[in-house]
Each structure stands twice: as C-alpha cells, then as structure tokens.
Amino acid sequence: MWLKKLYKEIQYWRSFDKRLHLMPPVFLLQMGKVASTSINTALRQYYKGAIVYGYRFSNQYKFIEWSVLWYLLTKQPRIFKKARRRVRYYLSYWEIRRLRKFMMDYPNRKIKLISLIRNPIERDISAFFQEIEKKHNDLSLPYLNKVFNADPKLHFSLNWFDENIKPYFGIDVYDYPFGEDGFIFITKNNIELLLMQYDLDNAKKEQLIKDFLGINTFHIQRLNVGAKKQTASIYKQFKNEAIIADEILATYAQSKYFNHFYSPEEIEASVEKYSRK
C-alpha cells in the first residue's frame, strides 16, 4: 500500500513543472494547525494544476534533492511512515523553490493563494501539543500548563500574515475588512487570495474552494485530527482546565490579528475561558 502511495508521490513530483503551466498554481500557505492537511490532500486529488503546500515562503533548503538523498542514506529509515513524512517535508520546500523560480520567470502569471485563520489561542495550544510525547515525559496538566506559559510561541501566529503574505505577495490582509461570513476573496495584481476561517464547516470550505479554483468537484476528508491522537484526553483536559497567564492573554487580546478577524465578544470569551475567572 505504501509503495503505491510513494509511486503516486514520485509521479506527481516529476510532473510538477508541467502542472505549473497547465493551470494557475495554487499555494496553500498557512500557519499550521488550521486543518490544512486535509485541504492539501484534496487539492492534489481534484486540481490539475501545481499545488504548493507550506507555512512560509522560504528560500531555505536550497539543495533539496541532496537533502532527501542524505536523509535516506544516513538515517536508514526503519519506519517507512516516518521516512515518507520526512521526504514529503523536504519536497514541500522543493515545490516552494520551483514556485519562486516560476514567479521570477513569469512575473505576471496568476498565482492563487489559500490561507486559513484560527483563534490564535486555540491554534497555539494545538501547535503546543504537536508531537508532545517526544518532547516531554511528564504529560500531567500542571507541568504542561507551566511549560506553555513559559514559552507559548504566540508571536508566530500573531505576526504570521505580516511575515509571510505581505512581503512576498504584496497583500496586507489587514487592509481588507473581514466580515461575519468567515471568508474573503482578495485580488491584487496577479495574486488572488482566498482567506477563510478554520471554524467553517467542510461543506462551506469545499464550495468556496470550488468557486475560487473554478472546479466542479472538491471533497475534504478530515485528517490529522487532534481529538483522534493518543494525547486526545490530555489535550481536551488542557483546553478545559489550563490557566494561561494574564500577560499572555493580554498580548493575544490586544493583537492586530485577533482584533481584525474576531469580534470583541469572541475575544473576551476566549480570554475569560483561559483565565478561568
């Protein structure tokens, strides 16, 4: 089964440059922990053009092919699932590198961006629990609560659009009012952006993406759901019982990100929930 999947991955990789010219390339550029894995999988199934997937428009990993080969030769992966995940990680940067070259060679060609927003407190908690068992032996609530308050990495989500969309694509999302519908289409020059909330149901996301890409069929299957993982119980307990420090909650509540995409009532409810007052 895994060989078949690997074969399909290789075939897709080999046809990537052709796909860049077949239809406008789609860059699913997102901050992580916004249910993007399932959208990426569906895009590669239903869209005939090139799909690029990543959380930043970085120029790192300039020697991607050698990085993949070095990993396979030195790690001698015994667990193929982990090996494939690592190769997929490197290939995503290779795709970004190819997209950068395409944009330099064809500066007026249309590029379609898809990104998602999520309550930043909820997103950062979800990111905190990513592979948490590998990072901490103690999974008790008091310990995890202490670790999160010591290093919440909140600036990653709060500054993400200013650091990853605006400088590379010329779109300042904060210049465009974000209404109660939970999505917005933005066009600037040759760049088109679909920005939608994580909380929208899949049926709505599917329709928005179909309209945005001009395709008739698109179906999202839920993947990488935190509630299904081994740490589901402690993750749920953390969300229901953890107390976040007042200064951290104040940073969230006063942020440009939170105030642009969420109402004062929603912000207040989130702050009250995690202050437990």
Defining key terms:
globular; alpha/beta; 16 helices; 277 residues
SSE arrangement:
Layout (H helix, E strand, L loop, with lengths): L1 H13 L1 H7 L3 E4 L6 H11 L4 E4 L9 H12 L4 H26 L5 E7 L2 H9 L3 H4 L5 H10 L3 H5 L1 H5 L1 H4 L13 E6 L2 E7 L4 H12 L18 H10 L4 H9 L1 H6 L2 H12 L2
Helix pairs in contact: 4-5, 14-16
What does this structure look like?
The protein has one domain. Strands 2-1-3-5-4 form a five-stranded mixed beta sheet, with helices on both faces. The radius of gyration is 20 Å and the shape is globular. The model has no long low-confidence stretch (mean pLDDT about 85). Helix 4 runs antiparallel to helix 5 (about 80-105) and helix 14 (about 245-255) runs antiparallel to helix 16. The chain contains 16 helices and five strands. It is an alpha/beta fold and about 280 residues long. The longest helix is centred in the middle third of the chain and has 26 residues, at about 80-105.
